[in-house]
């Protein structure tokens, strides 16, 4: 099952300003709304050049995205002029992302089709390492994280995310069975487990946050609607998107979003640093 963060990031972040999503004929596009919601949570900050709060990217960086998916994250980083390295097990996605980057000022684009065991990348290559919604899929998280650490330069920043257990636990008896089967989500990772994984890999955790109540509820309704993700047209999903847009547009919308994100979140995000001394 395609992760919803990857799906919403398929929209080029620059295409959607950090303003409410306009409804067309009283119908809100769920993925554009999801991107807007993600921006409110700290993603794709054009003004500060932060891919996510605390993770700024510049033309001085060599950024590796492992599990690049549809390429929204690296497109944002390519627009900052960084050197980009792509790695994904899906050759079609790597090629599609390479093509997406052709309109950016990225200094260079290096592509790898790989299962990341090991990564075909030299030690101490990247100053920025991104891997979103991948660890829940891999057979050996410790080995996977060890590879990410190996290819980062001393002092490199890491942006890592996995599904939050609050959302995953809600879906256990509702999601399609394959959602929790290989090659999809083969584990649910608690907050403590996520922090332990990252720390035991040798990284210093800078921040640990969560967001995505909107997507958590959307997914619950998605399973009940029994529609295809490529065309999720159903009254329940339409009503939910309209409702969430109305919530965000309300005077205390940001406060309500923050409170709900703290209770049921789609994703948890860790920003970490590789120690300056070699590991």
TrEMBL record:
A Pfam family in this protein? Methyltransf_11
| Methyltransferase type domain boundaries | 64-158
User: Matching InterPro entries, A to Z?
Assistant: Methyltransf_11 (IPR013216), SAM-dependent_MTases_sf (IPR029063)
Q: Which domain of life is it from?
A: Bacteria
**Gene3D superfamilies reported for this sequence:** Vaccinia Virus protein VP39 (3.40.50.150)
State the protein's name.
Methyltransferase type 11 domain-containing protein
* Species per Swiss-Prot/TrEMBL record: Pseudomonas atacamensis
